[in-house]
Amino acid sequence: MSAQRFDDKVVFVTGGASGLGAAAAGKFAAEGAKVVIADLNIDGATAFAATLPDGFAVKVDVSDPASVEAGFASAIEHYGHVDVIFNNAGIDGKQQKLHEMDLANWEKVRNINGDGVFFVLKYGIAALLASGGGSIVNTSSTAGLTAQDNISPYTFAKAGIVGLTRSAAVEYAKSNIRVNAVAPTVVLTPLVQNFIDTAPDPKAMAERMANFNPIPGMPTADDVANAVLFLASSDAAWITGHTLPIDGGYVAV
Predict the structure, then answer these.
(1) CA–CA distance from 9 to each of 81, 90, 131, 165, 228 (Å)?
(2) Structure confidence by residue, pLDDT tens digits, 157-178
(3) Which of 16, 45, 181, 233 could anchor a disulfide with 5, C-beta 3.0 to 4.6 Å?
(4) Name one Pfam family in it (predicted).
(5) Residues 4, 30: Cα–Cα separation, whole Å
(6) Residues with catalytic annotation?
(7) How far are the Cα atoms of 8, 72, 75, 162 from residue 57, in angstroms, in the given order?
(8) What is the mean pLDDT of residues 202-211?
(9) What pLDDT, on a 0 to 100 scale, did the predictor assign at position 86?
(10) C-alpha span between 85 and 127 (Å, rounded)
(11) CB 48 within 8 A of CB 252
(12) How far is 19 from 86, CA to CA, in rounded Å?
């Protein structure tokens, strides 16, 4: 059997039990990786990990630094090292005008989508340094590159991920660690379905989502996962600090 891009690599995926995380985890596994499914939903993570050739589930709440640190410790105890991190866990939050924003909603989205990404970088980079280097792909969003109405905490956090990606890439370039991000447009995952269902007019939102980008329709989770694997692999050896839109031309308009 010919060598694959992630043979003998250990890949740590946050939010790996469903959506984009699960799609990427499955593709990493298909290309030879040992995959750590890190998710707050430990039952879902355990069930999914059992379907992979070599999967391991850990319960991780990315908004809790102690939980993130423990998750990486468990992964290293199980596999010995970590080589790749898909820093993907996130939520959408409520859709509200900024001046009407529920402060609890602001804090929850910021804690998970913002602080959570930082915590995974903090403890994940420490793990990669111990392994001699590696690659990180963060999940931002087109909302982090452009403005969208009624989701200010989400936009705030996703824009912050773009900046964190650049900072980490520059800071650890000489340590053999590359850090990039993907910025997907609307992808029909459980997260986006919830976004549609909780909109003031779900039918109008569904129609808007389907016509959001110059290329008609929506990308699949697999479409995004393909870009994640490229950035994480040696095929992208000279790419770092980059946020790659997967958006059918949305940010080009």
Answers:
(1) 9, 24, 11, 22, 15
(2) 999 999 999 999 999 999 999 9
(3) 233
(4) adh_short_C2
(5) 9
(6) 154
(7) 18, 11, 9, 28
(8) 87
(9) 99
(10) 10
(11) no
(12) 13
The answer to whether 113 touches 154, Cβ cutoff 8 Å, is yes
The two three-digit tokens of residue 40, written as one number: 């707050």
* Per-domain residue ranges of the chain: 10-186+222-240
Strands 10-14, 34-39: pairing kind: parallel
Q: In the predicted model, what is the mean pLDDT of residues 89-104?
A: 95
Which CATH number applies to 10-186+222-240?
Answer: 3.40.50.720
Give the CA-trace dihedral at 148, 151, 152, 154, to 10 degrees: -100
Burial class (CB in 10 A: 0-12, 13-18, 19+), 200: exposed
Task: Return d(Cα 117, Cα 121) in angstroms, integer.
Answer: 6
Sequence-ordered list of residues with C-beta below 8 angstroms from that of 163, at least 6 positions apart, any chain: none
Helix axes 202-210, 190-197, angle to 10 degrees: 130
Q: Which two tokens stand for residue 71?
A: 């998750």
For residues 19 and 187, what is the distance between their CA atoms, to the nearest angstrom?
Answer: 9
User: Is the sign of the CA dihedral 214, 218, 220, 225 positive or negative?
Assistant: positive
Residue 245 CA to residue 123 CA, distance in Å, equals 26
Residue 78 one-letter amino acid: H
Beta-strand runs (E) in the chain: 10-14, 34-39, 55-59, 84-87, 134-139, 177-184, 243-246
The per-residue pLDDT for 186 is 87
136 residue type, one letter: I
Non-local (6+) Cβ contacts of 40 within 8 A are 59, 60, 61, 62, 89
Q: Decide: pTM greater than 0.70.
A: yes
User: How many CB atoms sit inside 10 A of residue 1's CB?
Assistant: 5
